[in-house]
Design brief:
Layout lengths: L1 H27 L16 E6 L10 H15 L3 E4 L16 H7 L11 E3 L10 H6 L7 E2 L5 E6 L5 E6 L17 H5 L3 H12 L6 E7 L14 H16 L4 E4 L5 E4 L7 E5 L14 E5 L3 E7 L3 E8 L4 E8 L2
C-alpha cells in the first residue's frame, strides 16, 4: 500500500513538473534572442544584407551569425542577401566540399536564418568551382543561386513590387583578366557583353508595378576603404554608375571591402550599401558622399514598403550603430 502511495506521489510530481516546464516554454517563446531596438516599417518587406563571410566560423563570423539570427527574429526577416566571397580562400570544389558545412550550414543555424538566401558570387568564389555554388541551389532549400547572375521580384503588401537584380561582378574587373591570375580561366569563360545587355534589359522594365529597383553585386562602385583609389574600383564605377542612375536604381548592395559603408555621391541617384564585414574586418574611411563608415564586424537590415526603405547597421555585439531612410517619391 505504501509503495502505491509513493508511486502516486511521484507521478503527481512528474505531472506538475511537466506542466510547469510547458508553461515556461510557452512563456519564454523563441530561445534565440532578439534585438528590440531594431525597427520595421508598416506593411514591409524585411531582410538582412551581409557579405564576405565564409571562414570556417573563425574571425567574427560566428559572432555576426548570432546577431543575424536575433535580428532576423526581431524584424521577421523574409530572406537574406549575401554579396559574395562566400568561401575563403578558394571557393568550393564541389557540392560536397566540407566548406559548405564548416562555413555555412554549421554557422548560420538560427531558426530564423533558414529562409531563402539570395547569393552573389565574389572573386574568391572564382578561385574554385562556381558551378558547384549554382548546383548547391538544388540541394539546399535556402541557397538560391540559379545562375551566375539572376533577378528576383518580390511583392509588397500593397500590390507593388521590388525588383532585385543580382550581378556577377568579377568578370567586369579589369585586373582579373590578366594571365596568371588564379581565377583567370573562370573569368575569361564569362560573356560580359551578354550580362551587361541582360542587366540593362532587366532594369529597363516597363512593369508599372515595380516600385523599387535594387542591384546586388560583389564589387563596390565607390569606397572610402582599402580600395578607395583602386583602378579597378574607378573602372567599375565608370562602367555602371551612370547605368544605375539612368534606370533609377534605388540601392546597390555590395561587399568586397571588409567593412561597413553607405555612400551616395553628390548628383547620383543610387545609394550604395556596402556590407562586407560578416567575418574579417579591415580599416576604412570616408570619401565624397560617405554617409557612414565603420571598421567593425556586422551586417545590415532593411525594411521596405511602398514609400520608404529603412536601413539599419548592426555590429557583432547586436548594437545598432547607424540607420538611414530613403524616401520613394
Amino acid at each position: 500500500m505504501r509503495n502505491k502511495i509513493y508511486s502516486l506521489f511521484f507521478l503527481l510530481l512528474a505531472i506538475v513538473g511537466t506542466a510547469q516546464q510547458k508553461e515556461e516554454i510557452e512563456l519564454s517563446g523563441y530561445q534565440g534572442g532578439y534585438i528590440p531596438e531594431l525597427q520595421t516599417l508598416s506593411k514591409s518587406l524585411n531582410f538582412l544584407l551581409m557579405g564576405d563571410f565564409g571562414r570556417y566560423g573563425q574571425f567574427f563570423q560566428k559572432d555576426v551569425a548570432l546577431q543575424m539570427g536575433k535580428a532576423a527574429a526581431t524584424i521577421e526577416s523574409d530572406f537574406v542577401v549575401a554579396v559574395g566571397d562566400n568561401f575563403y580562400p578558394n571557393g568550393v570544389q564541389s557540392t560536397q566540399d566540407y566548406s559548405w558545412i564548416a562555413s555555412f550550414e554549421n554557422v548560420y543555424t538560427d531558426y530564423n536564418l533558414q529562409n531563402p538566401w539570395y547569393v552573389a558570387l565574389g572573386n574568391h568564389d572564382y578561385r574554385g568551382n562556381i558551378q558547384a555554388q549554382i548546383d548547391y541551389s538544388k540541394i539546399s532549400r535556402r541557397w538560391h543561386m540559379p545562375s551566375p547572375y539572376f533577378s528576383k521580384t518580390f511583392e509588397l503588401k500593397d500590390g507593388n513590387k521590388v525588383l532585385m537584380v543580382v550581378m556577377d561582378t568579377s568578370p567586369f574587373i579589369d585586373s582579373y583578366h590578366e594571365k596568371g591570375s588564379d581565377m583567370y580561366e573562370n573569368i575569361i569563360a564569362q560573356d560580359t557583353l551578354a550580362q551587361r545587355k541582360w542587366i540593362e534589359k532587366e532594369l529597363a522594365t516597363t512593369d508599372a508595378s515595380i516600385k523599387w529597383k535594387i542591384v546586388v553585386g560583389h564589387h563596390p562602385l565607390y569606397s572610402g576603404g582599402k580600395r578607395k583609389n583602386s583602378a579597378d574600383t574607378k573602372s567599375f564605377e565608370t562602367k555602371f554608375a551612370n547605368l544605375f542612375d539612368k534606370y533609377k536604381v534605388d540601392a546597390y548592395f555590395c561587399g568586397h571591402e571588409h567593412d561597413l559603408q553607405i555612400i551616395k555621391p553628390k548628383g547620383r541617384y543610387t545609394t550604395q550599401f556596402l556590407s562586407g564585414a560578416a567575418c574579417e574586418v579591415r580599416p576604412t574611411g570616408n570619401r565624397e558622399g560617405t554617409l557612414f563608415s565603420a571598421q567593425t564586424a556586422g551586417f545590415m537590415t532593411f525594411s521596405l514598403n511602398n514609400t520608404n526603405l529603412l536601413a539599419q547597421v548592426v555590429d557583432a555585439n547586436g548594437k545598432i550603430i547607424f540607420s538611414t531612410t530613403i524616401e520613394k517619391k
